[in-house]
Design goal:
binds adenosine monophosphate; alpha+beta; elongated
Amino acid sequence: MALLQISEPGMSPEPHQRRLAVGIDLGTTNSLVAAVRSGVAEALPDELGRPLLPSVVRYLADGSVEVGHVAWECASEDPRNTIVSVKRYMGRGLADATRHPSPYDFVDAPGMVRLRTVSGERSPVEVSAEILKVLRARAEASLGGELVGAVITVPAYFDDAQRQATKDAARLAGLDVLRLLNEPTAAAIAYGLDNASEGVYAVYDLGGGTFDISILRLTKGVFEVIATGGDTALGGDDFDRRLAEAFVEANGLGTLAPDDLRRVLKAARLAKESLSTHPEARIEAPIAGRGMLATPVTAERFHALTADLLDRTLDTVRRTLRDAGLAVSQVAGVVMVGGATRMPQVRAAIGALFGKPPLVDLDPDKVVALGAAVQANLLAGNRSADGEDWLLLDVIPLSLGLETMGGLVEKVIPRNATIPVARAQEFTTYKDGQTAMAIHVVQGERELVADCRSLARFELRGIPPMAAGAARIRVTFQVDADGLLSVTAREQSQGVEASIAVKPSYGLSDDEIARMLQESFGTAEVDMKARALREQQVEADRLLAATQVALDADGDLLEPAERDAIAAAMRELKAASQGDDPRAIESRISALAHGTEDFAARRMDRAVRRALAGRRLDEIG
Ligand code: AMP
């Protein structure tokens, strides 16, 4: 299918009608917030244009709190009250928190440690909430309204306690969590892999201090994390240290004083980052008593100095794949996350290992937040590029769905899903003993089949006879990269199957698509009412039919007065069902259901007695 340009003139929602939702990457070192604007996910910067917010919170004696860059600058002068890497303590007890050295004064508390600060005890949840509050305020200021919610990312290996702690922090910050999303999944979504072909994907995440590898399996548009591995003490900082050591050696320096060490490490980091784009760089730092010293370093030498660090990550990747029972060749794509994946030797090594270039087009520091933003936008119901008159996407222009009882449409693939895409849904039978099912594929945004475009019809036959509602028919819609739709219906117990292929965009011009969309927007409320009415009518028909069957079979169980009462309730339901008030039908449905409860109990007794008749007691039980 070619790129579709869909005009939605005059349909841009007013800014106050947009449902603002954001994605938040609540990171160990840095956090960021992103949103989909003009159809594109982007990180939201602070007033100085900085997208990254250091995940650092400082508590002051006067009860005030500093967050981000300001707090980070105080980390060395006021370490006990300046909390860095609070993510490591989320949902963790004292034993876990004190496993690594830190300057904090921990307090043992049930469930999760607390930190004693100059302004009182704080739980990691409260500390994280301070970071989230700043991101929320930033988002509301730059998007111009209140947020309906946020998708917050967490490491794939986070357990329930850590996830719950993250949710609690969000609630404390006044954020509604639409969903917690695994970080690797968010990265994959940012690259649109959820719409790619099904298969296994790897997410290689090398940050400043940690390394994570996650293996995801994409099935029917949903990612499952099938394996994770990593090293919590390996990251870009280790590469800095190797350069710092080379600097110390080249200049004949012994052990460095703490201030000198900090300056050398900073210079090493700058040199490392420069070597990502230059063949040569200089490590340049003033050393007490020696003045400014400079050591040139080539990319080649840097690679040699750090090859073992890179190899360690590759070993972990291989081991994780092996644990998952997968060969590298089975991995369909690799996503790069984390600032340290900007190093070209890392990209080259991953490309060589997997036999394909890794995905690096998105900023590796932002990719997780971007994916979370995409997901948040979807969950908030902003399926189109909200606020925009134009969509320019290789997408399904109109929703694809099935006709269900009562002439209603059940959407299976929503409009604007990027192709290729596959979605499945389960349906069931309506009547006892039903052995065939008519599948009617429709396209459009409206709730009633009559208002949508009919694409194809076919029948699934050979369903084993079962009680109504017991059969499970899985209907899969698949649209390939060419926009070709195939629909398959499969009965789950015996596996009988039927399918059909259609070209959904065939014959629909852009103008027609625009008109159908316009109609659906204009009629959404009417459609919802029509849908509610049809649903109640279908339910009324079902109940009336079932009651009639029961009366015909076991009417003799009723006294004449009871019979009359049921007949009256049926008449009232029939009359209500011809009207247009779904609530009236609903109340008549419950009246009839209630009025036949005793009858149903008597029928049940009779059925049991019949089943037992003629059998000896010792046969039963
Ligand atoms: P993160 O924890 O994902 O923010 O990653 C931070 C790490 O990425 C630090 O070690 C940075 O030095 C490193 N980094 C950032 N930019 C670059 C670059 N251009 N080349 C190499 N490493 C980088």
